Input
Amino acid sequence: MTHRGPARLAATILAVLTLGTAGIVLARGLAGPEGGGVTAADLAAIRFTVMQAGLSALLSAVLAVPLARALARRRFPGRAALIAALGAPFLVPTITAVLALIAVFGRSGWLAHLTGWEVSPYGLQGVLLAHVFLNLPLCTRMLLNGWAAIPAERWRLAESLGLPPGALLRHLEAPMLRATLPGAALAVFSICLSSFAVALVLGGGPRASTVELSIYQALRYDFDLARAARLSAVQFALTTAALALTLRLTLPTAFGAGRGLVLAIPAPGGWRAAVDGVVILAAALFLLAPLAALTAAGLPAVPDLPAQVWPAAVRSVLIALGSAVLALMLALPLALAAARGARWAELSGTLPLAASALVMGTGLFLMLRPALSPGVLALPVTLLVNASLATPFAFRILAPPARILQADYGQLAASLGLEGRAALRLLILPRLARPLGFAAGLTAALSMGDLSVIALFAVDDAATLPLLVSRLAGSYRSDAAAAAALLLVALAFALYLILDRSIARHDPDT
Output
């Protein structure tokens, strides 16, 4: 059941796309006529990037603690549906989330109509609002997993001792939070470092420009390759440092293993129950009201969508499907190699987390610009970069079941001489059908909503749906933008569901 050849090829491809492109932009930046330093605008972009990522991570983590705690210890109608909705924060394309927030918090949004308050969704406060909206569900799910990991025997012992809520927090919940909260916050920090669509739409000017947005402006408008190269190198260094810090500070809990018993977490009544209810209701409104506002604004305009929306939607679907296939081709052999103890495969599978779409795009642009036109490469480069950035998510989905598969069937397959394509067809693909379906659906949805790379390369006849949504919003065609954003969400969810269910049905245990 060995697949070291394909795994090594996948590792090489990912290394070229991450380290190779970073090396190219670094060399170009040092060799350029202005390669000796950074400008005041660059320093401002770096400071703002780190500041907004830190504040976004802090707010998401702090707000996720009471929400995750309330969801962990309360039972109510719709709880499972709400938690399920929190499980797919990446399925909502970023540009759609931004437009949804504008529909609520903009000058003509729901909040202004209902209360008369005018909250500007632009600038730093807008960037923070969007990042919390996108990452609070992710952080909450990570903390919910932490509460679920506390052995039931610990809760039962605490209940038998009659420990009050304060003691439960001190002896059970606080140690779990010390182990899981830093990793959750740093994961959000890493994501926000490479934010592009949020800063592009909500940044509001030079004072709220991120490194990613500065790279885009340097290439798209100024054609300043040296500055783009310097900023790309800075971006790679920031994301690499954040990823390394995340891996270092994510600590295991010290509860030990339980017997897998399921026990309801004690749920105190009185004012604590009321506070939990308010927290859950406020979070549900915060997460669902923007999408409801976008639906109300965009649904009537769907029949009048511009004609260019439909070709853009077809391009987006084709890129998403191609990215999903390529991401699985990279992630599956790496997951199988990691299941056999190859540490290099584990590192290769997570390496793209340290990169960003614009860093890769810049490197490929510098590499291919002498020979080919960027417009010709727009769609293939977008597909390739989207697939590589989605590979870590697919790898994380496939690695645990691959280890189980190796433990259960590895020796049997070896004794039967089952290797290569035969092992892939008869054993691996059927037994991993469920995680493969989930990984395919997730990576397709991620690619469907990507805006960054295509914004660098695209010409008018190669625009994808997210880029078209951004252009419609930028030209103040708000109704058309909302309708196109609804179409984008529908297609992303449809791809996720179709791929997940169509592949998972091949599981022999289904």
Q: What stands out?
A: The domain at 1-34+305-510 is CATH 1.10.3720.10 (MetI-like fold). The chain is about 75% helix and 0% strand. The chain has two domains: 1-34+305-510, 38-300. The first helix runs from residue 4 to 31.
